Structures are given as structure tokens and as C-alpha cells.
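Deviations from the work plan: none for this task. Representative record:
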Amino acid sequence: MFEHLEFPVIVAPMAGGPTTPELVAAVTSAGGFGFLAAGYLTAEALAAKVDETARRTGGRFGVNLFVPGGRSEVDLTAHRERMQVEARRYGVEPGEPHWDDDEYSAKLDLVVAQRVPVVSFTFGAPTTAEAGRVHEAGGRVVVTVTSPQEADIAVARGADALVVQGFEAGGHRALFTDDAADPAGGQVYGLLSLLRLIGARTSVPLIATGGLVHGADVAAVLAAGASAAQLGTAFLRADEAGTAATQRRVLAEGDRATAFTRAFSGRPARGLVNRVLSSLSVGAPAAYPQLHHLSKPVRAAAGQAGDPEAMSLWAGQAYPLATGGPAATIFGRLRDEARTAAARLDRLR
Ligand SMILES: Cc1cc2nc3c(=O)[nH]c(=O)nc-3n(C[C@H](O)[C@H](O)[C@H](O)COP(=O)(O)O)c2cc1C
């Protein structure tokens, strides 16, 4: 699927702002590939981005969809009260914590109708019938997995390739379920172990993701058997990314730890540690996307105030080493570094 790429680096879908048609197009033009993030957009807004990206890339791009999960009925009262305290700091009210399906069906209809060449799925696998619709439209199906058990499910449903997400990754863990039904029983895998375990049970191409910010990291996962590397954080500070100015600033400062939290969305995600992450993570219920809607006005108000302490600052573990500048320059640096790293392996010949 990505054999034709001169250097197999994919810019990850990054919902919530960072992904732009310009970013996808810049990486594609440089010789890579990119995914638009459909998450949180209306189907109508996605349609406009698909059109623009198709125009800018000559039709070489992918779209990433969030697979809706079950409706969690957990009690949100305590978390709601704690978020209310945060909201007061910014003079706003928390949002209504409702469940929705992110317009999944309408977005799937759209990517099928537009014959988007690669459709990736996160938070679950498409049904066999849904994967079949993408195939009938000439598209390829990619599913993000975090465990060998999820890989088996995805391949059985018709995945043509898997994004293998290690726990180093920035943003949400792509877990199929965030509850006791997790087929991996809560095991949290690092990228290299997971690549090896999944590569031992399937021959579909694997796309490695999580904590890769240097070309040597890309060379490492290719050496480990991956067909391509998908990088998110490495492009967060790219000129073409839609990353908020305050997030760019704290990423560049590079002095915060990262940690998993459910506090902002109700699903575990890795972000820079700030006040909300430190104080609201313990006891935050597994209730996605209810908590996403609850925290939305607070995150937005903090962003407008230029205050990072109540924003969801998603980033992978290696974020302090990510660089800014044009995406093509970042891509070129990664390629040069990967070549240097590959030359170091000559000693193994
Ligand atoms: C800001 C941000 C937003 C993200 N949004 C999405 C998304 O919409 N869909 C998705 O499949 N993955 C998303 N991810 C996860 C990436 O696909 C990928 O797994 C992650 O970026 C890899 O780790 P890295 O950030 O260290 O490169 C996001 C990651 C970040 C940092």
C-alpha cells in the first residue's frame, strides 16, 4: 500500500485542529503520505476538507474515522463538579456530557462515495460489511491496534494493513474498548514488542506509530519489519499544522512530562502534564465522548486565554525532540537521519 513511497513516513491523523489539508499535502508532496482526521468534525465539514485535500494532493491521501463505542452509563456527577470548578476559572459553563457516534455512518458514506483511497479506523474495527464497502469503492482499509488480540479482530474483519500503536504515542490510545471487555485484558504494549508480537501472527503490512520523532526511529521500525512509520508529534509544530499557539509554545519549551489521562475525554490519552491532568485524572470515569463534550468549553476558554493548564496538550513521549518549520523540511530531515542510521547498520553485514 505504501510501497511506492520514496520514504515511508505518514503524517498521522490528528483530530481537534493539528491536521489540515495543507499539512497532508505538504507531506505527500515531499514523498510521504498523510491522513485527514475526521474525528469531531461534522460530515459536512469533513466533505469540504476531503475536497480540498483531494485537490491539493491529486487524490493521494487517507481519511481517519473514529469507530463509535457503546454508551457508558457511569455516574459523571463527581467529575462534572470538578470540571465546574475549572470552568469557573475561565468564566464559562462546562458542556453537556452527551453520547454521540461522531456521525460515523455519514462519514463512512462520504469516504466511500468520494472513493478515498485509504480509510483508517480508530477506537475499533469496522464491521466486515463496512470494510467491504470501502473495498468495493476501490479503497484500502487500515485499522489502528494496540494489542495482538485487536490485530486478530481487525484482520478477521478485512483490514489490509494495521497501524500498530505503542504506548509511547501521543493522543488517544486506539483501544477497541475502554472497559473490562478489552480483549488484551488491560495489557499496555510498547511499540517494538507489539510490532514483534503482531508480526508473528499476521502477514498484513504493519505501520508503526508511537514516539517516533527522529529518522533513526523510522529506520528502527523499518528494520523491525514495519512497512511504514506514522508520526504525529513530529509534525505538531510544522508550519502547516493547525496546532494552537499555546500548545506550540509548551511543546517548544519541552520541560513537561507526558502522562495518560481520561480527564478531558473519558478515554485514555497521552498529553503534557498540566493542572487539569494532574488534578482530575484520578477517578475520571471511562465515559467517552461524554467527558469530551463536558470539557470542551473549558479547553476552548483556556486556549483563548493562552493558558495551557486546562488544555488537552496531546503529545507523544519523545515530544521535546520534535522540531518546527515547514513540513517538507521536517520530512527531509527525517529522511536524512534515517539514511545515516541505516549506514550505521553496515557493521552488521
Ligand atoms: C494531537 C494529536 C491528535 C491525534 N488525533 C488522532 C486521530 O484523530 N486519530 C487517530 O487515529 N490518531 C490520532 N492521534 C494518534 C496518532 O495517530 C498516533 O498514534 C500518534 O501521534 C503517534 O505517536 P507520536 O505522536 O509520538 O508520533 C493523535 C495524536 C496527537 C498527538
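Residues 47 and 321 are 34 Å apart (CA to CA).
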